[in-house]
User: Fold this.
Amino acid sequence: MNRKMRTTAVLLISSMVFSLAGCSNGGTKDTPLQEKTGNQSDTTAQSGTTALSAPEQGAERSSEAVVLRVGCTGAEDSNYAKGLYHFEELAETYSNGKVDIQVFPSGQLGDERDMVEGVAMGSIEMCLTSTGPLPSISEDFMILDLPFLFESRDKATIFLDGQYGRQILDTLEPKGIHALGFWENGFRNITSNFEIVHPEDLKGFKIRTMENEVHMKTFELLGANPSPMAWSEVYSALQQKVMDGHENALVNIANYKIYEVNNHIAMTGHFYSAAVLMINQDLFVGLDADIQEAIIKAEKESREWERDYSAGLDETLRAEMENEGALINDVDKTEWQKACAPTYDYFKDRINQEYLNSIIGQ
Assistant:
C-alpha cells in the first residue's frame, strides 16, 4: 500500500478506535502482561487479504499475501522507521511477495507498551520497540537497562547477538511474542535548560524517563526526580517546564527537535538503548516455513543495516544540532559511571549474574 494512503487510513481508524476506547495513558501503564494461554490465531494477521497495489520496492506481491503491520514510535526519518522500510523491502523480496509488510512510524499504532501488548494479544502483528517496557514482562531484560553496561556498540552487539541475547529474547514466548532480534537506538544523553557536567548537577532535577524501573532508580539514586511519561507528551511537558529535562538518544532529540525547548545536551551516554523487533508468536509459527525463513533472513540483514545507520547518525547529528543552536557538552564518563554504581547493588538480587559476568568478561 502507498505510504501516504496507509498513513491516512491508520489515522482515520485510530481516531475511531480511540473514541470508542476512551482516553489511554499509552506508555504510562504499569500492568504486566499475563502469560498467554490458548490459540490466538483468529486475532492475528489478515491472511488472504488482496494487496491494493504492487510494492514500491521488492518482489511483486501475491494476491494472497499475508499482511504484517509493524509499528514503531520513531519518526518517519528515524533509524527505526528507515530500518523497518529496509525490512519491508527484503521480506517481500525473499518471500516472493507472499508477505505484505506495512510500516507505521510515529506511534500511529500506539505507544511502546500499547504496541507490545497488541503484539502479545494478536491485535497488532509486529512492532519495533525499545527494551524500556519489557522488564515488566520479563525481568531477564532488566540487565540491559543498567547504566554504563556496554563500553561500546561492538560489545553490545557481541552480547545481544550471542547465546545470552537469544535466551533473553526467548523469555517473551510464554507471553505470546516471538522476538526476532535486537536492533538499537544508541546511547542516551541528558537534555536540560542549563549545562549539566557533574552527577550532582541532577539534584532535584525533574527528568522524564521511560517507564522503566532501572532507569528511574538510577536517576533517583543520582538525586533527580524521575517521572515516566508517554513520548507523545514530552515536548509539551518540557516546553511548559513541567519537566526540567529528559534523556534520550541523539536521533530522537534531533528528529523531534527537543533542543528547541531543552537547548543543553550533556553527552553522558549513560544507557545503551537496545530495541526488539517482535511478531505475534501464534502468527509466526502458523506461517509456512519458507515465509518464516524469509522473515528471519530479512530481519537479520535489516538489523545490521539499522545498527550501522544508527551509528552513522551519531557522527552527524551533533554538528547539525549545534548549527541550529543546541549547546552540547562532553562529560567525564568515569565520574558518571562511579556515581551510577549503586544501581548495580540495588538490583543485584534481580539481575541474572551469569549475563552480567559475561558482559564484564568481554
Observations:
- The radius of gyration is 20 Å.
- Residues 188-271+315-352 form a domain with the D-Maltodextrin-Binding Protein; domain 2 fold (CATH 3.40.190.170).
- The longest helix spans residues 289-323.
